[in-house]
Amino acid sequence: MTACAIETTAEDDDRDGERPGRGAWPTGFTITANGAYAARLAGDGDALYVERWTLDGPEPYAVPLPLDQPEEPGTQLLPLADGRVLVARRVDGRRNTFSLLYPTGPATGELRLGAVEAPGSEHLVLLPPSPDGICAYAMCVGPDTTTLWLVAGGAFGPEQVAEVKGRCTGGVWLDRTGRMLALDRRLDDGPVKAVAVDLERGGEVTPLLQITEDSNDRLLLADPDSGLLLIRSDAPSPGHDRLGWGVLGSLLPVRFPECLRLDDAAVTPFAVQPGQVLMPETCAVALRIDAAGGSWVGTWQPMARRMGQLAAPVGWLAGAGLWTAGGVLRLPYATAGAPCGLADVEAPPEPGPGSEPVATAVGAAVAVAAESVVEEPRVCRPVPLQQAPLTDGKPAG
Rounded to the nearest 5°, which phi and psi values hold at 279? Predict the structure, then answer.
């Protein structure tokens, strides 16, 4: 189940208004990669506490995990697959501490993991939940270098696992093992380009998206089952971002469907249907639509001409949700009468014949060519998009 990332409170840091560690989905509700648990800060005013949701049972339910002291509004949370919740707190403006919270009868247990220093202008943010459900990673963004930390799941507390040149944002997992991580990187004053970081090769960096030399190319979501990638780039319209899609390992161009452009609203993908092995065009995608009148939900498939739009449930935790493999979109909501709820929405029907996407094919093909490796499982190795041939061919079925 592909789910949402977490909100960061860092200040905007460059001309594009991006924030260190910013994911595609600013929300205070974080879901594990397998869709079993979620976590958020609950409470009112200054009386905030961690709340864990269980999502894989017959009915969702929430467990409060309060401590003696309330949490700060900027506290970051990451649920793990075993039901514990990682808590990252900023202390004294530079020190970041990490703890695991878990229910112990009527009380809350806390296991302290250690701390990471983020001096000066550096910002530390948690990355989206690792696909293995065990490890948790954080990204510390400095003026010229970004460091990646394993903050839970290691043997001796937080440990640095990689150092990447440049200022990085985003964070999207490219595989099911938690080895390949995509980051959006800016070198000096150059454009933003998504790169892949191999955590098992000491943080080896490989170009992932390079649609044109000067375009800003970001990766928003990736589905390892189908290879579907959701991309935001200004390549087709310099100075104006467009939402597009491609396929991991494909040599076909990135496509930017017209149906994903709304004149008076921002469209952001937040979940992709899993289980569509080698069938990226049939994957259902959930989108958050934000306009002056509020937020609602869009559903779309790469093979479709149109984007469906529907009202969000009352109390929707906007930008949060997950797909089941069977094509049901589950949207979390919280109201006074229903403090822990999931609204189910069926996936859109598959389009009939002649419904190939109306899209702009730009630059070179999407990102990653497959390369055999000795280790299992097989890992896709990224290559620059500019190495792929230009083509107006239809998406492969």
Answer: -130, 65
Residue in this structure with the two tokens 């997992």, named with its chain if needed: 173
User: Which tens digit of pLDDT belongs to each residue from 60-73?
Assistant: 999 999 999 999 99
Cβ proximity of 230 and 209 under 8 Å: no
- Reported as a single tens digit per residue, the pLDDT across 333-383 is 999 999 999 999 876 555 544 444 445 555 443 443 222 222 233 334 444
Q: What is the pTM of this model?
A: 0.83
- In the β-sheet with 266-272, what is the strand arrangement from edge to edge? 266-272, 285-291, 294-300, 308-310
> Residue 113 carries which side chain, given as an amino acid letter?
L
Please state the three-class secondary structure of the chain as a single string.
Answer: CCCCCCCCCCCCCCCCCCCCCCCCCCCCCEECCCCCEEEEEEEECCEEEEEEEECCCCCCEEEEECCCCCECCCCEEEECCCCCEEEEEEECCCEEEEEEEEEECCEEEEEEEEEEECCCCCEEEECCCCCCCCCEEEEEECCCEEEEEEEECCCCCCEEEEEEECEEEEEEECCCCCCEEEEEEECCCCCEEEEEEEHHHCCEEEECCCCCCCCCEEEEEECCCCCEEEEEECCCCCCCCEEEEEECCCCCEEEEEHHHCCCCCEEEEEEECCCCCCCHHHCCEEEEEEECCEEEEEEECCCCCCCEEECCCCCECCCCCEECCCCEEEEEECCCCCCCEEEEEECCCCCCCCCCCCEEEEEEECCEEECCCCCCCCCEEECCHHHCCCCCCCCCC
Please, which residues have CB within 8 angstroms of residue 240's CB and are 6 or more apart in sequence? 234
100 and 113 in contact (C-beta within 8 Å)?
yes
Query: Using CB atoms within 10 A of its CB, is residue 334 exposed (0-12), middle (13-18) or buried (19+)?
Result: buried
Q: What's the CA gap between 203 and 215, in Å, rounded?
A: 25
Rounded Cα distance between 372 and 353, Å, is 36
